[in-house]
Specification:
Blueprint: E1 2-9, H1 15-28, E2 32-39, H2 50-65, E3 73-83, H3 86-98, E4 103-108, H4 116-120, E5 124-127, H5 135-153
Parallel strand pairs: 1-2, 1-4, 3-4, 3-5
Helix pairs in contact: 1-5, 3-5
Length: 160
């Protein structure tokens, strides 16, 4: 069974986000072993300088890198990434598993993004959209799309 680690910078705030994550975690149990790791987002002043942002991203990068499993295929969620349809994501994940990859690690950065050195470790930079979403919603969207892709790959009827 595929082992998936979702590393997120920042905590879920409102209860409704946590409920949505719980629902997709339950659904994904049929397709993969899912682990969600929340890392603390670095605090920044109201109007941070670029140097302060870079320093925060560097600290977050160290926390992320320490939790990427050895031998995992890494997917970094970032706005400059490649957009894929649900079918294309299912195909990508299918090719990973056929090639012998049993571990997947998805990365969601904090409100200032993700350090370039972390994105460089990714086999795929994936964009959900050119639009900006709250990180709480991005987490739910990633889990839903992962569920959809794995359901597609299994020949399920969730995707219409």
């Amino acid at each position: 069974m595929l082992s998936v680690r979702l590393i997120c910078v920042g905590k879920l705030g409102e209860k409704f986000w946590a409920e949505a994550v719980k629902e997709y975690t339950k659904r994904l149990a049929a397709y993969c072993k899912l682990e969600i790791i929340e890392l603390p987002e670095q605090r920044l002043p109201q109007t941070p300088s670029q140097g302060e942002i870079d320093q925060a991203l560097d600290k977050e990068a160290a926390l992320i890198e320490a939790r990427i499993p050895q031998g995992a295929a890494v997917i970094a969620l970032c706005v400059e990434g490649r957009p894929l349809s649900s079918e294309q994501l299912a195909d990508y994940l299918g090719k990973l598993t056929v090639s012998g990859t049993s571990r997947l690690c998805l990365l969601i950065g904090g409100s200032c993004g993700m350090a370039e050195r972390v994105k460089q470790r990714a086999a795929l930079r994936l964009s959900m959209s050119p639009m900006t979403f709250p990180h709480h919603l991005a987490r739910v969207m990633v889990l839903e799309q992962l569920y959809r892709a794995l359901n597609i790959a299994a020949g399920g009827k969730y995707h219409k």
